[in-house]
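Quick question about two entries, pasted in order.
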Amino acid sequence: MRSEELGETLLPKRLALPIFASDPLSSVAYATQEILLVLTLGGTTFLYLTPWVAAAVVALMAVVVLSYRQVVHAYPSGGGSYEVVSHNLGASAGLVVAASLLVDYVMTVAVSVASGVDNIISAFPGIASFRVLMAVGCVALLAAVNLRGVRESGKAFAAPTYLFITGIMLMVITGVVRIAFGHGPVAASAGYGIIPADHKDTLAGLGLLMLGLRAFASGCTALTGVEAISNGVPAFRKPKSKNAATTMSVMGITAVVMFMGITALALTSKIHITDDACRLTGFPGDCHSAPQQTVIAQLASAIFGGDHSVLFYFIQAVTALVLVLAANTAFNGFPLLASILAQHRYLPRQLHTRGDRLAFSNGIIALAVVAGGLLWLYGANVTSLIHLYILGVFTSFTLSQIGMVRHWNRTLATETDGKVRSGAHRSRVINGFGAVTTALVLAIVLLTKFTQGAWLAVVAAIVLWVMMRGIRRHYDAVADELTVDDPHAESVRPSKVHGIVLVSKLHKPTLRAIGYAEAFRPDSLEAVSVSVEKESTEELEAKWEEFDVRVPLKVLDSPFREITKPVVAYVRSVRRSSPRDAVAVFIPEYVVGHWWEHLLHNQSALWLKSRLLFTPGVMVISVPWQLSSAPHADHPARRAPGSVRRGEPAGNRSAREAIKAPENV
């Protein structure tokens, strides 16, 4: 796609919802489960806390959605929390948010995919041994779809997201109707007993408080991905801010309704689920190897009449699919944020470049590689990965709300219009309350999850922050070094140019290189060869004299059969003798048409180039010689990725396949 076609990729609200909100919508599939897993550490006694924990999560969701609606309107250029914090709290604070979000986007992919695989295994327990392979394969598939472009990925992922919403709503409504008519669903695990993790029947005081806080922190996974819409405002159709704010409201209301419905039904159907199946009394099968069904799977089975009903498999299919596709939120948020950071010179500039389909290809690939590695390292285990999760999200939530409060303070200091001031006061109250609330949640998350693995996410964010600062310092130093202060002084011509043609034997590539060097008209020109074998050197000198080559030949002695060191030493000696002069080194090179031919030719010139390029005042010039196989690369073939952007005509792979192999110098 041409750059001018970028406008055609802008998203209507119906596609923006599954693209940017699939993560918070799908997280309801495991948020309730995470609350129950924590509360059952104390046995069944403390499940009565579930409604209160869920209510706190819902209230927090409402606060965050309202707060980010303010961000969408105030900063429509995208960048979300990073843009808000950088503009209002400074670059260092902005980098804290950026590092936290980048880590959290990686965790979004890992947790979503692992949870989706869990739901597949709940329906088909026999494939549990392929858990990691399936998870990594899903990440690769997501990356491939996203490389096709934002709009294409939206079309691919829209149907599963809407089917998931429909399926969950159908399940909730059916469950509520059954309860209303006195036939409430009962989960298969309702008869299981639960052995408390600490072998005590009760907890009290501080222990009970910590259990409730930990359950709340785990339930807050329902809020992950909420900020993605504020990052992606530029991807919406006009009016961008209005459409983004509307999409955020729809997302919040839908997620809250589904989460409340699932939690209520999980309690009424008496679902029992633990972090270790061996703590369940009455659990069928081997508790060490047999997987527990997820909360969604148990609900679908209880409501729709068993594990073999059509609607049970439908719920499991759409849940697994949307959980895997929920990672798409990160596949849109991570590359976009990385692109903004690269534009600000905090990440490599390659991450700012759009690919053939106008997607940020390098960011997509980087995210897929890191998330795939994390899934492999942790065995695609949701329970292990979840402890690394949500820390970054609440860091960005808190700092962005503080930044928005400062934004409204600045607005009120200069604004005189009464209507605008009234709106600013209201928005400041919303953002201020959001800042206090999310800061409290951040403290709870740190307190309850730090020793369980969250410290790794903290370390990763710190390392990333330091790395981004280092990258910025490097780019700034290079920019300062390359800044032109005096154009005339920087463009002074060298006093003389000494030409050197590197020679291994007298053949056509050598003669072409000599002719090309002469066309440059250097002040002096000589051919240089390295004597590795006496017989070969004598043969070269004899032919040189026989053919009466018009350029003098200089032979460098190499008693230890080295090629690079004598040439580099000689070139540097020429430079030292005339520091104001320039040296142009001409290297004949072969061009071949097959990759395997590259392996058959000596790579000495590559080493020479790498050494000579570090020598000031030395220019290295390649003189190509196309071997008979080289035209093969011009034969019609399938267009390669990137060929259009690189300027290759359709069916021409020459620029991609032609490999330069230096001759044996």
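Here is the second entry:
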Amino acid sequence: MANAQFPQVRFRGKLRPSQQDAVEIARKSLDSGERQLYVVAPPGSGKTVLGLYLWAECVKRPALVLSPNSAIQMQWAARTDLFDRTPPGGELASTDPKTPGLLTSLTYQSVTLPRRGDDGLDDAALDLWRGKLIEKEAARDPEEARIWIRDLQKHNRDYYDQRLSAYRKEIRDEASQRGDTLDMLHRSSLATLDRLKTQQIGLIILDECHHLVGHWGRVLADAAVMFDNPVILGLTATPPDVDNKSPQDFERYATFFGPIDYDVPVPAVVKDGFLAPYQDLAYFVRPSEAELRYVANADDLLHEIVDLASAPRDGSAASQEVVAPQPVKPPTSEPTEEEEAPIQLLDLSALQVVGSAEAAYAEEAESEPTARVDPVAVAEIEVETVADAPRIAPLPAWLLTSLAEKKHAAQKFNTWSAFERRDPEFAAAARVFLQMRELALPADVPPAEWDPSAEAPEMAILVPVLDRYVRHALRRSPNSDDHALARDIITRLRMLGVQITETGCQACASPVGRVLAYSREKARAVIPILHAEMATLGDSIRAIVVADYEKTAAVMPETADLLDEEAGGAVAAFRTLLLDEQTDRLQPILVTGSSVLIDDDLQPQFDHVAHAWLQKEGFRVELEYGEEEGFCVVRGQGADWSPRVYIEMITELFQQGVSRCLVGTRGLLGEGWDANKINVLIDLTTVTTSMSVRQLRGRSFRLDPAVPEKVANNWDVVCIAPEFSKGLDDYARFRKKHDNIFGVTDDGEIEKGVGHVHAALTDLRPELLEDSVRLLNGDMLVRAGQRTTAREHWKIGQPYHGQPRTTLEVRLERDEREQSGFPPFAAKGEVWRDDSLAMSIGTAILSALAETQQITPSARPQVKSRAGGYVRMFLDDASEEESELFATSLREALGPLHRPRYVVPRKLRFSTPTFWSKLLPQFLGQYLEQQNDEMVMLHAVPSALAKKKESAEIYEKYWNQYVSPGQAMFSLRGAGEELRIEAEKAGLTPRGSYHEKEVFS
């Protein structure tokens, strides 16, 4: 691969651990003949040095580096000072497109500049324009369209130039989609590409490559062919999301870069000491009284939809009475101790909660108003109606028939397993729907066994059922009344954020989602958050509050009474800060692309410092201040006044502490904006795409050389009403936001997902929130002040291990009697705690698994406590497979009974005073008390130890040693079955919350 004429270039520094890992993976790919490298790494992780190292030490060919702006372009050239050239010669890097070097660093614009205004392009654009006018009936024929455009050119030149530019772009886009991008380039870009070709480019480094879903990507895909297939290295901190992207462009991007070769996790860079440690926190609010009424009405609407679909109707093809099929027949023979009897629990998390994510929120307004077509009003593909045709059966009866006949749309299946594989979401939701209504399933359909502690939101069960009912039944009915019912259900579901299309269902704008996302209570939550942060940080606090918009485009006709134009926006948050005496002392400033608002108390100091900064930087601007209630509107007079200038100025004032709180929009305070003093970020946005979330969170991770112990707190504010079906829409947005975020937990583990924020937060719904929002928020506010502890949890300087470990988190609901007893083999007065119980049972499990040679003897159990009464347990010095086996076994032992093969009782020893013990002093009388061992809980023997009687007896041995006296009993028949049934009736079986999770360290 290396060029014989390429000089020897050596790196003088030392690679970081994450860079070494990336280089190792890249070498293997290159050695195997791969020509694509794709590395994802957070800001500050050393992507520039990594790219230069791969160029100098691995590829060893002339390279082209492309960046989105000139500042990054210059950084690449500057960092070549870390490399030595042998023999010594000229500069290693060039930033001049006219004189390429060994490494040429340019901007994307320099090689992708489209041609403008030449006759061929303008003729095609004008043809397209004329055609559009005729198509929209704005002109009758080409001549009338030509005259109309000519008059625009003469009398409204600005608008003419704007529209012609838009049609030129459309022509260029069409050409690039056909692969003709190079023909559409400006002469200067073509000349630059020709000069680079003579350099025999062997490597193209594309920095911030997420920008290449579009025109830049189309050009460079063709340019790579022009350069004779060089190695492509894509570098980014934020891989693009498919949302709002052209499928062709996204497919081209995916093909051009291939799969991600190495994703440098943020925790690795934090532990290496090159990013600031952080903790993710959340503050939960309830909707206001008026907002809550609106959410409750939507909940009624959901049940109305189900009632509408389930109601008896005249002329139905099936009986109006839902006749329950015969229940599943019991087995003809009793199971023996050696038979397998596995119970497959239904994973309700697999059910998709449609209508609860950011698809409901428009990222930005369209550039031009366009005609909007209501999908409900569009003629649907329905069969021809027939007079007096029978109606489709009501929803429950139709579901029973579908399951009994194993019919999906027009296709029938011979077996249940084949039917379930065809549409597992529907197979799960339909069974849960029927079982919740106590309707017996068809004889050969297995019941849906699910863990009640993992209850899914109601929408997750109802939407798949209603969607299939509409698409597979009502729309295909020959009866016009069924078609009308389908349209009615579709219209009502759209109010709840669900749109049924021809091929499925998807999220759409939901008034309820808007009310929760932009609740007035979310802006008010900023106050207690900042109070807690100010109490810890004092004057060193540097907080930013980020919203979607300056004034939220959230108003819909259905929510006009609840949401005004400021609801959920940056202005609303800014006004809220000024109304509180403590936060007003932070001298907040609002900065957006169109406005600068300052606290009126700050105006004299702001004017002095701003004028000094403008003068120092050489900008000629005169500042004016418009007074409003409690704040001033800053306006600048002069050609130099622009968002770029005032954002740079206000950032400097923020760094100095003139203002200690900035309020703005993610468009300005997201990608490309840096202020390394930030130690508090409050996220009020609705964005959930991985790229946007990473960009925003990356603002607070920067190291502050003046504060080496910096720890950043990143806050989400979430509005919930979990008692209602749509009351968790904002929580679903919050959960999706954290799907790809790593964070440190309160017990010092690194975890991806909402669980790292608090153990009560799960992928389905939050636990403990209905009655404990205040307690949960209290935990968060306490953690906000524990920055030193959070920093210690990161274990900075210790290596990051990217291999996951499976852990079990539990929050047990134990019998009240356990508080008065004591474990056997321990001192009197000692009681079981959740952590000691988990450790004892875990030790028994591990010992038995080791003796049966399922886990290596060197593995060691660990238990840690988390906020909210949760306990986490896992193995050290174990493989990934062993960790997973241990966590599963522990969950079975501590979890609810699901027809286990073997059970074992857990007993406590209770003391009852006797006549003689009462006569003696307590220290003597205790020896004369009557001792009774009573069962307080019946536990399952883990399935890995219950396959044979011998392994169950091994487990019994260790259970007796570490937990309690008790005999392992076969529980599928006989005395063991009777004991299990009685324990279930008496409530002596385990209950609680259980989460299996992967963690890193």
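Reply: Residues 317-333, 357-381 have pLDDT under 50 and may be disordered. The CA atoms of residues 411 and 419 lie 9 Å apart. Hope that helps.
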